[in-house]
Specification:
about 230 residues, Alpha-Beta Plaits, 5 helices, 4 strands, membrane, MSHA biogenesis protein MshJ, transmembrane helix, transmembrane
Length: about 230
């Protein structure tokens, strides 16, 4: 993708459009800017947001499936362990050993799936760095969003032999960015995020224009975590 050539053309088109807007009445400007914002959101969604959301849903499903399966295996293992203590049996021992092997393999799958998602604290650092590396864009605000449970922490099995810690749930953590700059710079920024080796959920909330011709963008990005960690901003 030729981001530089495309970005230069967009910048020129953007400046031409702003010059034409200056010649309009206040009411005409408001109407045209509203229509332009809607169009830019649509284009941005088609180019970046929608493809990213497909990857997000796929990787989220793998992580949730692995975590759910591991919780089920842990519960089954705890129940069999309790029965084994009451009535030792070779077949039951073999079943427990098989469950332990399956749980170990599922644990590996869970870690591999979670590695597709950047940690919440690292996400903040990376997003700030990408803004600094993107010409024509500046960060005017970044706030942490409350953690949202995607998969609640599994409840312990109703047995005395069940482990006290049944493992983590899955949490969605996010940040909201307030950006200023050119639309071409926003596309370059989204392209840089798209090139990251992690899966991120995206949501472009709004696009508006300042009186000086600078565009304002409100963007939300999400990651998943096995910990309800706080994002330091």
């Amino acid at each position: 993708m030729h981001h530089g050539r495309r970005g230069g053309a967009m910048k020129e088109a953007w400046n031409t459009l702003l010059a034409r807007l200056d010649a309009r009445t206040v009411r005409e400007r408001a109407l045209l800017l509203g229509a332009l914002a809607a169009l830019l959101i649509f284009v941005t969604d088609s180019l970046f947001i929608a493809p990213a959301q497909r990857s997000w849903r796929s990787d989220s499903a793998r992580l949730t499936e692995a975590r759910t399966q591991l919780a089920t295996l842990d519960a089954q293992q705890a129940m069999l362990q309790a029965e084994l203590e009451l009535d030792p049996d070779a077949a039951m021992k073999a079943r427990i050993a098989a469950l332990q092997r399956e749980a170990s393999a599922t644990g590996v799958r869970l870690q591999e799936a979670s590695a597709r998602f950047i940690s919440a604290t690292e996400m903040t650092r990376v997003l700030r760095a990408l803004v600094s590396q993107t010409g024509g864009l500046s960060l005017h605000g970044l706030r942490s969003l409350p953690a949202q449970p995607v998969l609640e922490r599994p409840a312990a099995a109703d047995t005395e032999a069940a482990p006290a810690d049944t493992g983590p749930g899955i949490w969605q953590r996010g940040v909201e960015l307030d950006l200023r700059g050119e639309y071409a710079a926003l596309l370059a920024y989204l392209g840089a995020i798209e090139a990251l080796p992690w899966t991120l959920g995206w949501e472009l909330l709004s696009i508006a224009a300042d009186a000086d011709g600078q565009a304002r963008f409100t963007l939300r990005l999400y990651t998943l975590s096995l910990d309800e960690e706080w994002i330091g901003v």
